[in-house]
Design a protein that fits this description.
This protein has helices spanning 38-48, 82-89, 102-118, 128-134, 143-151, 164-181, and strands at 6-10, 19-24, 30-35, 52-56, 123-126, 184-189, 193-198. By secondary structure, the chain is an alpha/beta fold. The protein has a single domain (6-198), classed as 2-Layer Sandwich (Nucleotidyltransferase, domain 5). The radius of gyration is 16 Å and the shape is globular.
């Protein structure tokens, strides 16, 4: 595998909805596209052979939870993971993984992570909203400003008509690159999952 090659995936909760995909090359050129099925994502990762795959989706359940069903006894064992609690302490807004549509996204993320790890790829979880906050970028509510900010961080490749899903995938790919370079913070409990985010500028 090539050194410092990262893939970012802005995963949708359903295969019928658009998933953003970004390959960030060693020279920081970003190539983005829209994918749908898990099989497409896996095929592209196998084609691109990244050193890291960074996914925007919960990739693990809270400790003590075996599922996200309301009729299971594990429901009383918590709705937040340690990384989620840390986000709250940081004042960063997010949707809990037990909230409505987030359940499907979580289970899809867990399945995709397992499939990619079984193929030998390193997979990490991130959250583009938090990453954008820490990088001083606006979130998707200001799509044009977010695009401009990301264009300044990559070396070409972003189309004029790039979608919000692709921009979040670019953000994930940048986080993946930072992870490979050691320029990151890891939130949470490793027995659950570590959420990888950019290291704030003031952090030594």
């Amino acid at each position: 595998m090539n050194s410092l090659r990262a893939v970012g995936v802005d995963l949708a909760g359903s295969e019928s909805r658009a998933t953003g995909y970004c390959l960030l090359e060693v020279d920081m050129r970003a190539e983005t596209q829209i994918l749908f099925k898990d099989s497409e994502i896996i095929q592209h990762v196998q084609r691109d052979l990244p050193d890291i795959v960074c996914v925007d989706a919960p990739l693990a359940l809270p400790k003590g939870r075996c599922c996200l069903r309301d009729d299971c006894s594990c429901r009383g064992r918590g709705h937040l993971r340690e990384c989620d609690k840390t986000l709250l302490q940081m004042g960063i807004k997010f949707f809990p993984l037990t909230l409505g549509p987030m359940r499907k996204l979580t289970m899809r993320g867990i399945r995709l992570k397992k499939a990619l790890e079984n193929l030998g790829f390193k997979v990490i979880e991130s959250y583009p909203g938090a990453a954008q906050d820490l990088m001083g970028l606006p979130r998707k509510k200001s799509l044009e400003k977010l695009k401009v900010g990301l264009i300044q961080r990559v070396k070409g490749g972003l189309r004029e008509a790039v979608t919000e899903h692709e921009l979040d995938a670019v953000t994930c790919a940048l986080v993946g690159r930072m992870y490979l370079e050691g320029n990151y913070i890891a939130l949470g409990d490793p027995e659950e999952v570590l959420m990888i985010l950019p290291k704030p500028a003031s952090t030594p």
